[in-house]
Structure formats: C-alpha cells, structure tokens
Design goal:
Jelly Rolls, Immunoglobulin-like, 3 domains, six-stranded antiparallel beta sheet, six-stranded mixed beta sheet, disordered N terminus
C-alpha cells in the first residue's frame, strides 16, 4: 500500500436556513437516489458507489473519520479510485436531478466531503447554468498536497451561475486512475434567509501570549493545544469555524484549517521563540466573517540554555532569495531542514560543514519557508522568502 500521511482531524456540522431547492442526504437506500445519475463520461466502467459506516480508507484501522472528521451521517456516495485499482482512466460525474432557481436571487451550494489527494486524482464541483456545466470548485494535488486530505462542510456561492435558472443542476466529477478517493454527503442548494455570523472573541492562547509551550511528546509531530475561542452570542449562529495561521501579521500565510473546533490542537513544524499570528473565521450558509488577527510567541527551546543562544552568531542571507541561502556562522552545522507552509520538509541536509554554508533552493516553489539549523551548540529557525 502506498504511503499516506495524516495531518489533520477536522470536525464540522451544519445549519441550513432558507428556501431549499435541492436537499439530498443519500439515506433512502445504498443506491442512486431518484433523479440522480452516474455519468461515466470516460466509459471506464467505474462508478460512484454508496456505502454506510464511518471507517474511511487509509486513515487508520477502525476509524470513524467519515462520521467524525467529515461530519457525515447515514449513507454517502464515494468514488474509491484506489479500490478500483490501476486500469482505465476515470472521469465519472455524480449528477443531481434538475432543480428550479428561477425565483432565487442568491443561491448557495453546500455539502460535506472527504477528499484524499494523490496520483492525479481530482474532484471537480460543477453546476449547470441552463446551457453548460461551469466549474465552481476543484480539489487536486495543486491545492491539497499529495498524500493528505481535506474534509468538512463546503459552502460555495453559485448565485452568478444559477440565480434565475429554471433547469439548474449540480454534479461532482471525479477524474483519476488508482488515485485515492472522494466521498460526499448532505448536498443542499438554497437561498439563505439568515445573515453571516459575527466574529468570535476571547482567544486562547490570549492575544500577545508569550512562552506558549510546544508539545513534543509525539516527536517528530509537534503540537500546540488548545486553540480556543468564544462564539459570538449576537447575530445568526455559525455552523463551523476556520482557523488561519501565519508568521506575518496577515495571519494566513501558512494556511487555513476548515471546520476547526474550539479546543483542538494544531500539528505543525512549530519553531521555538517564534511569533505566530492566527485568526478564527465564523461560517454559516450565508457567508464567512473574518475574525481579528491575534498573536502568540512560542517558548524558548527547553533543551538549550541562555548561554547557548548567546555564544556565537548565526544568520542567513540573502533574504529574499531566488537561488541560494547562505548560512553565516563559525559553529559546526549538524543539519539543515527546510519546511514549506504546510509543515512539510522539502530539504534535509546533514554534515559537518564550517563557516559559509550554501543551501540550493532554486527548485523550490516561490513562497515563504522555515529553515531550521542545528549545530552542536544551538538550534534556531529562520523564515526566508523564495522568489
């Protein structure tokens, strides 16, 4: 079996309020609901199937990820490309019956899903605007790193495509070949009659917190926990929350976790003595309200004394860079690791080089990276920009 790395456990739930024109939970039977179609566009013979039970493939024996992580209930459709094996290329769409949006001015599509990325698998969300299929969402290795997954409730405003359309449809089109899987539940199209929620307050870690501990008990996995907040008691309720994290005051340049529950922890390549920025966005069917950006600073490395940090300088240059990063130090360098914004290690070098050390970063994509340098006396993490 191919390697699969599990990064996140996310839980979400949903509230729907409004004029509903499509509502399908797939619980009637373990087969296509009335009016739905398995459109085998590539004529591969491989179709969406219908299953029940929370155990999601490759997420660990006996897991309940479909029910807990993705928020499913009862039955659900799944295109399990990996289970089909290597064979014909797949292009199969699960298509809804036609529904009437002719009297609607605002149209929102929502669904729950769990998409596992890898080996070219793609999940396309498309709507029929009365004339043609229009793509309104895409999951692939370009936006879900290979061998990871994304899950939870997805809300997409499709007013531009469907408002006023009398013969609208939605479909979920899988493209791949032995490329993991995509599962869905609770597909709804409606015109909301509520307002977006107000932003949450009262964060933990508190804004400006220092010496926030990093849990290394599951090394090499590093965790900060808990991330907590209080949901607004004013306005219409949120159905879920998104956590954004950054190392700049924008608070989102590292990335975002959808469907994040208050009290959860975040696994990441956390660096000691580093300031991070984060925010919580509140979500419901009517929209998303961006929260205030808060900050906290992690603890100093408990394995290093104050003297260790002060004995011998350590720096990197140039920054930003397009090709090489130089490490300036008169210490012995034991290792250099570079991590991308998803916390994945993209460079891992070991050796006893002295003085000027040159790291080739030409092949990295443009963006923000963290470089962790370990010597016999010191361990320090630097941010640099590849441009």
């Amino acid at each position: 079996m191919r390697n699969f790395t599990l990064f996140l456990f996310l839980i979400s739930f949903s509230f729907t309020f409004g004029q509903v024109v499509l509502n399908e939970n797939f619980d009637t039977a373990l087969s296509l609901p009335t009016g739905w179609t398995n459109n085998d566009i590539a004529t591969s013979g491989e179709l969406w199937t219908f299953e029940t039970g929370g155990n999601a493939p490759y997420l660990g024996t006996g897991n309940t990820a479909f029910y807990t992580t993705a928020g499913f209930s009862g039955n659900y459709p799944i295109f399990n490309s990996d289970a089909n094996g290597a064979g014909a290329a797949e292009n199969t769409a699960l298509e809804s019956p036609s529904f009437d949006c002719s009297t609607l001015t605002t149209v929102v599509l929502s669904f729950k899903h769990l998409f596992v990325s890898g080996y070219g698998g793609e999940g396309h969300i498309e709507v029929f605007d009365g004339t043609q299929w229009v793509e309104v969402g895409l999951y692939s290795e370009a936006n879900v790193t290979a061998d990871t997954y994304t899950s939870g409730e997805i809300i997409i405003d499709v007013s531009t495509e469907l408002a006023g359309v009398s013969n609208a449809q939605v479909r979920f089109r899988w493209v791949g070949n032995y490329s993991y899987y995509w599962a869905l539940d609770d597909v709804t199209v409606q015109q909301p009659t509520i307002n977006p929620p107000d932003a949450p307050t009262t964060p933990t870690p508190i804004d400006g917190a220092v010496d926030v501990p990093i849990d290394t008990s599951a090394n090499p996995t590093l965790t900060i926990s808990p991330f907590e907040w209080i949901a607004a008691t004013t306005g219409d309720p949120a159905s879920s929350f998104n956590l954004s994290l950054g190392i700049t005051p924008s608070g989102d340049d590292i990335g975002s976790l959808t469907g994040f529950n208050s009290g959860g922890g975040v696994n990441y390549n956390w660096a000691y003595s580093t300031t991070y920025y984060w925010r919580i966005d509140a979500v419901n069917i009517a929209g998303t309200t961006q929260g205030t950006v808060w900050s906290f600073t992690t603890e100093a490395d408990p394995n290093l004394s104050t003297d260790d940090f002060n004995i011998k300088p350590l720096s990197i240059y140039p920054n930003p860079t397009s090709d090489f990063v130089n490490i300036k130090t008169d210490m012995t360098i034991n290792s250099v690791e570079v991590f991308n914004q998803l916390g994945q290690r993209v460079i891992n070098l070991k050796g006893d080089s002295l003085l000027e050390n040159t790291i080739d970063v030409k092949n990295l994509k443009n963006g923000i990276y963290l470089m962790t340098i370990t010597s016999d006396k010191k361990k320090q993490t630097f941010k640099f920009i590849k441009e």
